Amino acid sequence: MTDELDKTPDTAPNEDISFTLSDDDIRGALDALHAEDSDTVHAVLDNLNPADTAELLAKAPTDDRREIIHMYGEILDPDVFSEMDIELRRATLAEMPPAQVAAIISELESDDALDLIETFDDDLQKEIIRKLSAKTRIALEEGLSFPEDSAGRLMQREVVAIPQFWTVGKTIDYLRAASSDLPEDFFDLFVIDPAYHVKGHIPLNRLVRARRSDKIEELTLEDTHPIPADMDQEEVAHLFRRENIVSAPVVDNDNRLLGAITIDDIVDVIDEEAQEDLLKLAGVDQGDLYRAVLSTTGTRFRWLFINLLTAILASIVISFFDATIEQIVALAVLMPIVASMGGNAGTQALTVAVRALATKELSETNTGRIIWKETIVGSLNGLAFAAITGLITAAWFSSTMLGLVIAAAMIINLLVAGIFGAAIPVFLSRTGADPAVASTVFLTTVTDVVGFFAFLGLAAVFLL
Fold first, then answer.
1. Which residue among 149, 180, 211 closes a domain?
2. How confident is the model at residue 224 (pLDDT cuts 50, 70, 90)?
3. Which of 43, 102, 447, 464 sits in a 20 to 30 Å window from 269, CA-based?
4. DSSP result, 395-422
5. Which helix (H) or strand (E) holds 162?
6. Is 244 helix (H, G, I), strand (E, B) or coil?
7. CA atoms within 13 A on the CB side of 134
8. The whole model's pTM is what?
């Protein structure tokens, strides 16, 4: 025992462990590709897991990526394409013959296969589906019939369903005999009646602890949380997070079992939804990293054009006070401070509100309380920064009145930023708009207009 404890592990506890490919690994693989050293390239690809191979393809130059797919596509694990960014996957698979894409899809589980094929346009989808087996074709066509981003699109059709009247022994014998047809990963057995209605579930750990003679009906848990096939995937993720479940059955309108969703799919959904909301706040789409230049430019142009209109509106407000600015040049120097502080304070409140809406933490019962809290926070920060900027301005320009004016404008703008930062996402959500998309534009307009109007208006009244 002492000798075993004295052994040094292969990996020291404090040794850095990386879960991504290093730049040296990528350069080595690409150097071998350029040198036409196929043995080395084969060895590299064989030693990489699907996620690492997807990372290699993502970071490789376009020409090198095409060569890897062309020369070594046949040996790539089909799961590699499930790990790729959606835009990169679409561009990569679109260059393959439909028959090769069909072969890749045939090797994947039903949920991953559907995720792959739904990235294509309708014509290419039909061409690929025609080359699949009847079983795979029916499963994909059924999946495509469900709404986009729904549970029906997310579920896998490979499930373990057992009748109520079986025993534990019969169930275990069935699992062993049908091992090749079972899902690659599963956590629960779903119990069904003869009409395929879901009656409950049995976690695997509960099954293996039972005696062979125990009846399935006696082990069944009824808190199964069946998910309608048309439920939005964001709602599904919320259910998993709220109820702490690792898998759930997907059912049709008659509560008949269609498939299952597992926690690994939910992790992807949570990541996807979080990225989507984050990018929308900046007016950027997912996949912009791999999308064509003109397509990316066009997408961003629309949001920049909207921002231009809001900037023009703020400039119009400034133009009302051009005579004031001409007489007191210091105002032009100080204007950006008021608007910038309001914008940043509002963004903080807005981010909290958007996140709370996305996680269902914000509803009608606590909306007023949250907006009131952000109003108080804005007021307190307004008072604090009013004192700071007022003192700095008074010392800088040797004008106590100018310091008081910017202090008052700071209080007003940060107060308004707190109110509107929390209220705008709530209002947009209740009108059916996506608060992650439109909130920033409205907030920027409010804080700029109010900030400039308050500062220049007060200056016009008290300094002239």
1. 149
2. confident
3. 102
4. HHHT-HHHHHHHHHHHHHHHHHHHHHHH
5. strand 161-163
6. coil
7. 0
8. 0.68
